[in-house]
Design brief:
By secondary structure, this protein is an all-beta fold. 0% of the residues lie in helices and 32% in strands. It has a five-stranded mixed sheet, with no helix packed on it. It is globular.
Amino acid sequence: MSAIKLVCRSCKRSMDYDRSIDSSIPAVVTKIVQGHCDRCWHGDHDTETWYDAKGLEVPQNVGEP
């Protein structure tokens, strides 16, 4: 199982996310930082930032024409 680390920017909780759940996420992505997790989200608009193994941000439009 190949996992992506999900990290909550708000409460700092992290968890593994099985890569096979969403094949649209590029293989280079190893960590996704979200504004809130399922425990602290209150329905507000949320954003996420993708990172590679070196900690560099990966554009979310990778692979689009």
